[in-house]
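Run: sequence + alpha-D-galactopyranuronic acid -> complex structure.
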Amino acid sequence: MKEQNLNGIWDFSILPDYESVPRFDSISTVPGCFDVRPGEFGKRKIGCYRRKVNVSGGKIMLTLAGCGLHTEIFWDGNSIGKSVLPYSKEEILFDSGCAGEHELVIITDNFIPKDPGEQFKPFYDFYGFGGIYSDVILTEFAPDDLRYIEVIPLSYETGEVKIKVEPFESVPETLRIAFDGKDEKEIPFVSEFNCFVPDFKLWSPEKPDLHTVTINGKTVSFGIRILDWSTQEFKLNGKPLKLIGCNRHESHPEFGPATPENLILNDLLLIKKQGFNFIRGSHYPQRAALLDMCDRLGLLVWEEALGWGNKPEELGNETFCANQELQCRKMVRKSINHPCVIIWGFLNECSSDDESAKTLISRLRSAIRELDQSRPVTFATNRPRRDICFDEVDLLTINIYPGWYDIDCKVDGTGEIIPTMQEFAEKFKDIQKPLIISEIGAAAIYGDHSGYRWSEEYQTKLLETVVNGIFDMDRYTGVALWLFCDANTYIETVHFFGRPRGFNNKGMLNEYRKPKISWNRLHELLVQRGFTADKTTD
Ligand code: ADA
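>> structure
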């Protein structure tokens, strides 16, 4: 098997519409977003990327690890595939023809049509960027090479795992298996088997030890850790976990979601140093690089399919539903080996007080369950008082904004936080499912020190109260504060209270990762509470 990473500098054109013809008279990086180029922000256009590729011919696979809103791929001028699932990993198996040089063109737009079947909506509270968000990889293979290896840990006491393999085309006669590069064993081909990892070590946030398995020359890494969400506690390897962390958008004003890997790493190091152990990857499938890094750093991740505030007209639309299901299936297949991923999610803040949501939530949960029984499945609700879908999922995950969106509180609403948290602790006291606040927060304009709402001081007071509440109320298994850093959204927004500067300003850091007061104050609070177990970073 031969892999070519096609990232780099490609020929490029930006077009206003599909009638125009690309001249490829400019250049772009891949990955890269075209609407962060000078003068392009805020415009809805089409990006055309072109490069030459040398292959040995025959069937090959093109992997797009994540693209913009609608994408089509052409090989020597012929369409070989399309994607309408932004942020999802797409794999296209196609006949590349004869050996030699070929032309690869990727055309992707950032149009946001109002069609109910579309996955990205004009009302989402994060910016719909256009471009190639992540790696482009070409794989040449022998027909019996393995295309996919899945490792599911079964026991943290014995190190037993379940392994599944999938060849590209034809079934090989044997499997040559080596854990951690040692003691290769050969067995007749089976697509699924259980075995024990020799000299196994456990993966945990405190000690994130990983293993590798190499089968017929293909290597994947995995961690041995077992999750248990069958009570009100969330356990990892038998030990109850308190999840304390933040939501994070893959976003930067200069890169959009095509963030460089060292920026992702710096964000994760900041999160780790802060003392957080948990990230909710809001609101779409996460980059492989982020998950690789979280595996290594011991950060726990909630990964979810793209969705935001979807309403009955979408939840009842079969194109929308089928693409939601496809997104979930692709997400699980992409990330299943990552020990850091501890929760699968979808449909953030959909109309979960409506029957249409119940049908789709149950369909998505079943699709995920069919592929993976080792992690809990959930959706974040913003209507916990009237939600009718809690029975369909494994966790109670609620987005609440006491002290911010409640219209009654004029100047200081922080007094509403503890009573609201108590209300939900009481409401869910008899349900044997972990209770997590999946969003809570307040906006603060970086540099506003007025002490009123929108100031850094108000945000600090609100978040401190929340974190103290989480430590003091046993019913809460965790919290993902909203939000790691300010992130691009729309200035012409319909969202409550507007979005000054065109940003969601609820970050504890600004969009350039400069800390607001809350960031440092929360770190002190976590230290006081004895929660910072950061031993893996300096
Ligand atoms: C919601 C939503 C977030 C963000 C947040 C806010 O809960 O899930 O994406 O929009 O509200 O800032 O209001």
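>> summary
The pocket of alpha-D-galactopyranuronic acid is lined by residues 125, 282-283, 348-349, 382, 399, 439, 482, 504, 506 (CB under 6 Å). The chain has a mean pLDDT of 96.
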